[in-house]
């Protein structure tokens, strides 16, 4: 069975809406939210994931909460939790979960049967956010 990793940076795109360079800093994020801009990455990720909901033969993995799990729950797609993040997410959280989805079993310190390696990672994140994974 194919494993699909599903990952959302819930603040992706927030800084752009507010005319900022990005929203990595907590101050910038709070300023954008204070100006009335809203998080849109989750809604966009929901649109994407509902298109594959009817497909068979895959197993979804995702972090719990707004980094993926709550969107899968809303779309009524069962998934395996790969962890839970704090209330405020960061670029480091996104990279952490993306690495878990990319790494083979030996790198994660788990058996091959329990490997988190995904056949595909579907993510909603800022354009260069995951670049460190490919270095």
Structural descriptors:
single chain, alpha/beta, globular, 4 strands, 6 helices, 135 residues, four-stranded parallel β-sheet
Short description:
The protein has 135 residues and is an alpha/beta fold. It has helices at residues 14-17, 26-34, 41-52, 69-74, 91-102, 105-108, and strands at 2-8, 58-62, 79-81, 120-124.
List the helices and strands and how they pair.
Elements: E1 2-8, H1 14-17, H2 26-34, H3 41-52, E2 58-62, H4 69-74, E3 79-81, H5 91-102, H6 105-108, E4 120-124
Parallel strand pairs: 1-2, 1-4, 2-3
Structure characterization notes:
This protein is α/β, with parallel strands linked by helices. About 7% of the residues have low confidence. The protein contains 6 helices and 4 strands. Strand 2, helix 4 and strand 3 form a beta-alpha-beta unit. Strands 3-2-1-4 form a 4-stranded parallel β-sheet, sandwiched between helices. The chain is globular and about 45 Å long.
